Amino acid sequence: MTEFLLLGTVELRGPDGVLVELGPAKRRTVLAALLVDAGRWVTVETLIDRVWGEDVPAQARPSLYAHVARIRRSLAEAGPAPRLRRGPGGYLLDVPPDRVDVLRFRQVVERARKQECGPAERAVLLRQALGWWRGEPLAGLSGAWVRRTRESWGQERVEAALEWAEAEYRTGRHAGVIGELTALAAEHPFVEPLTAALMRALQAAGRAPEALACFAVLQKRLAEELGTDPGAEVRRVHQAILRGEPVLSAEAAVPAQLPLEVRGFTGRTRELARLDGILATAGRQPVVVSAVSGTAGVGKTALVVHWAHRVADRFPDGQLYVNLRGFDPSGAAVTPDQAVRDFLDALGCPAQRVPADLQARASLYRSLLAGRRVLVVLDNARDADQVRPLLPGSPGCLAVVTSRDRLAGLVVAEGAHPLALDLLSPAEARALLGRRLGADRVAAEPDAVEEIVARCARLPLALAVATARAAAHPGFPLAAVAAELRESHGSLDAFTGGDLTTDVRAVFSWSHDALTPVQARLFALLGLAPGPDIALFALASLAGLPRPATRAAVRALENLHLVEEQEPGRWRMHDLVRLYAADRGRQDLAPGDREAALRRLTGSYLHTVCAALRLMPLDDMPPVLGDPAPGCLPQPLATQAEAVRWLTRELPNLLAAQRLATERGWRRFVWQFAWSLDQFYGLLGHVHDRVAMWRAALAALGDDDPPDVRMRVHRRLGHAANHAGFHDEARTHLARALDLAEQADDHPNQARVHIALAQTYGQQDRLREALEHSGRALRLLRELDLPATKAAALNAVGWYEARLGRYGPARVHCEAALPLARASGHESIEADILDSLGYIAHHTGRHTEAVAHYRLAVTRYRRSGSDPWVADTLDRLGLAYAALGRPTQARAAWTESAAMYEAQHRTAPAERVRHRLDRLGSADDEDDGEEGYGADDERDGWTGAGA
């Protein structure tokens, strides 16, 4: 059949593959202008515009008719060819889309993007589609329409290439994409995702130095030619390569969270077959397996993790895992809210895009899973309510839940498949001993083996502890191990009343009796420690021991399976072991020893947080804590990147430590934690958690706390409440903070409170009050050497003046603010000022200047991590482009802005921008420059810290 080629030189090939002469460039442009709308009518006016643009000759129509006539001859020369028809609507070239290479390219790319298409098939399709590109599209042709079309198609090619690289990456074919990505990155040197994808592929292929060289070239080129730095995604890839970590796509992260399999797993043949059967009959429907239920220590987690590893290849888009700690002896179960947020992190969702409430987070989580095949393991659930928000909602995903509860509610309401897990059979229990102790040793003492199995009640956890003791002493007869079990006594009181079919305290107490006094004390303290796990420095602080002694003691506990090192340098306990350890802590340790240990641990966390913040470019320094208490060992941190990693990894433990301080009435620790974590919470975008933290700090204040601390707590709580949308609460606390700052004659903090009040009033569209507070802040700062705060105040005054239509004085204030912000190095404040200047320029008719300000503001926001404000600036950038008559750029800015608004669950501005996109090209677009600047405008005043 006849083929039309546009992805290179414009060519017509007959059924025999022979090229047909098409004539001069203008005629080939006419053919291309028809082919892009193959099968649809194209008006004569449209064709003339595409071929000649603004330079339309007097004889354009006769020339067009002549070119059409010659094209008909070429079509006839090619053999049986599509008809070129003339009608009232213009011309129609009756060509099937799959005979035009660019249309065929789009069809195949769309097939690859369908949700049922797995990575391997997607890679094949995209590789095929990219193979039809022969060079620069529409090569040899010129004109405005050709340039726009060529640019648009080039973007489609880049997007397809990135998706192809991602698909190949997921299937392990890293090296196969390097050549294509290298060529594309050279063609498009400023398209940063291409460089990021190339760096990922080079690292995965073992060529990390070349990946780092790519970053250096990009960084130099951007600095020299555009005056900017690489964006956040390329920097993230660069940092991961420097750390030697694998790099996943931020937008399509493939989580692999399954824990390591339990060593020596054996048996459970019937249960594994049952899980296989459920998976086989699942089809394309989401399935929940809830009845992996049973008593504590029966091996639910071991079974599910073992099975999950067996079937992981059936879920190419990843495996999510969370230990919900539903029956944690500390009562610190993982909330659905926290679990969903952790899953969003694993799926590559930036923290700034995570919604505030659980329902919205769950909706975003399910949206990210849509079209993907992901296995979700929800371990140790308390009840159905803890699980429901974590269940996927789309075909292709499967959730497996383990619990001590039967979760009947999930079976009834969600159609979950129950699978009750019983004790090991005698044969399976003996096989477990054989796997761990050796078949010969077990076969030599069958009676002792039977007694060990009976004393451990065929409970896998108890058997694991008993075999650890036997494995540690290979010369001991198994009869001695059985005798020790026989002579032990005691019970786990929390698991009486039918939950356990036998008493396992004997196993734990026997293991405990084998510990030295130092090891036993560490074991008991671990049962009392807050948080899901613990690192070495924190553990040493808890014990009040040097790190080497702590490491030796915890290794002894690990050898007896009393703790697990689930990742290097971090330990955690199984629920039952932790319960027993907590009982021992309460029984064996003096109250003063327990209190001092927990204070040392809490102090260690707090001192490390403060040290981490001093490494970060933040406005507000952490509280002065003084020297650590004896035995308190803060974690040493050397770089900003190391500080951010530590804060991110330890956040659950830090919050648990603050809760412990609240419960025990350690009031100063509570507000010091809030003060120290506030900046980090701001960077993460966790606005509601931040409000809760400061509310706890306020409740912990006492009469002996100094007024400046009380002022800070009210100011920070007001600032946090404002950003969470609690404006009345914000004004109340900010008014109290202002009163305290005025009593102390503290001008800097008075100014900061006024800026925060301006933000609060600005977000409520009370602009005159916002301007009044901004002006007060500026007057207080006139004689103070606080350039960043003064820049924020000047910009706030200028911003609200502009919002009120006073553009002349607004420009004066904002232009005075800009050098102060740049001198102090605060890029988020500089971005605010640039955004304000762009707004002022746009509303005074200087749209080209507005575009320049807005584009630089977007760069600064992204570089400083203030992504939530990028959407607003892109929204305004689109208005400036539209006013300049540049609809392509306006569409690009608004498309990205709308996507960001929707990701941030800001419905009203998202709908406003979508409406603009629908209207793009109409005369109304240039008249709506005032639209949308009111209560919906969330970029009010100062995004910088310290307000």
From TrEMBL:
Residues 1-95 bind DNA. Belongs to the AfsR/DnrI/RedD regulatory family. GO terms for molecular function: ADP binding; DNA binding. Pfam families: BTAD (PF03704), TPR_12 (PF13424), Trans_reg_C (PF00486). Keywords: DNA-binding, Transcription, Transcription regulation, Two-component regulatory system. Residues 1-95 form the OmpR/PhoB-type domain. This is Tetratricopeptide repeat protein. Residues 923-939 have a biased composition (Acidic residues). SUPFAM superfamilies: C-terminal effector domain of the bipartite response regulators, P-loop containing nucleoside triphosphate hydrolases, TPR-like. It comes from Streptomyces roseirectus.
